[in-house]
Amino acid sequence: MKTLVVCSGGLDSVSLAHMVAAEHELTRLVSFDYGQRHRKELAFAAEAAGRLGVPHHLIDMRGIGAALTGSALTDDLDVPDGHYAEETMRVTVVPNRNAIMLAIAFGIAAANGDQAVATAVHGGDHFIYPDCRPAFTNAFNAMQAAALDGYADVHLFTPFVDRDKAAIVTAGARHATPFARTWSCYKGGDLHCGRCGTCVERREAFDLAGVSDPTTYADADFWRHAIAAKGAA
């Protein structure tokens, strides 16, 4: 199956790219610059494309991102610390982000004869991001079938949509993903902060998967306190 992977440069999407390269026919990586404060992730996506020997398409969505206001990922708002599932992480929602990106990715796939668009949405995203849930991905797949009817046959591939991030780490390790060459932290500093929701979730996923985490965190122990606080809530 000729498959395009939507790749942010994060652990999830880079692991997916390595999995697709091993199990299908990886054709290209597509990334989006929507003005995210952690846009350093895009360099890791470009690196992954080079490593896997496929083209990297970087789509400039900064004009659109500037209009999708109110998110800590694009505006001058503090990225909250703590476990990813906490209510406070809703400030990281960029409305319709995945829907917009996937629509563009499907157009690129159709124009290039690809058969699938793969995205690494997973079960841990369901709390907060409506465009990561199975109801959305199923409806989007049906919408694109209608949008491309008679022109192209492209399917949405979401192997992790009903699984957790630990399953992604397991799959990534199985396909020799260089986890140190991925970026998750929403704060975009020199190191992963170790405190924001994505850092806590990342560190917990390695622990649950029983895989050594090569990431250097500015605060390497906070994740344990965040998990304990979640359990006590």
Automatic annotation (TrEMBL):
Coiled coil: none
Catalytic activity line of the entry: 7-carboxy-7-carbaguanine + NH4(+) + 2 ATP = 7-cyano-7-carbaguanine + 2 AMP + 2 diphosphate + 2 H(+)
Pfam families assigned to the protein according to its UniProt record, in alphabetical order: QueC (PF06508)
UniProt KW Repeat keyword: no
Binding site residues for Zn(2+): C185, C193, C196, C199
CDD domains (UniProt xref): QueC-like
An example molecular function term from Gene Ontology annotations: ligase activity, forming carbon-nitrogen bonds
Keyword Ligase tagged: yes
Residues that, per the record, bind ATP: C7, S8, G9, G10, L11, D12, S13, V14, S15, L16, A17
Cofactor note (record): Binds 1 zinc ion per subunit.
Highest taxon in the source lineage: Bacteria
InterPro entries associated with the record: QueC, Rossmann-like_a/b/a_fold
Pathway stated in the Swiss-Prot or TrEMBL entry: Purine metabolism; 7-cyano-7-deazaguanine biosynthesis
Cofactors (names): Zn(2+)
Keywords assigned: ATP-binding, Ligase, Metal-binding, Nucleotide-binding, Queuosine biosynthesis, Zinc
EC number of this enzyme: 6.3.4.20
Listed GO biological process terms: tRNA queuosine(34) biosynthetic process
Protein function: Catalyzes the ATP-dependent conversion of 7-carboxy-7-deazaguanine (CDG) to 7-cyano-7-deazaguanine (preQ(0)).
Family: Belongs to the QueC family.
Cited HAMAP family: QueC
Protein's name according to its UniProt entry: 7-cyano-7-deazaguanine synthase
Organism: Paracoccus laeviglucosivorans
Taxonomic placement: Bacteria, Pseudomonadati, Pseudomonadota, Alphaproteobacteria, Rhodobacterales
Gene that encodes the chain: queC
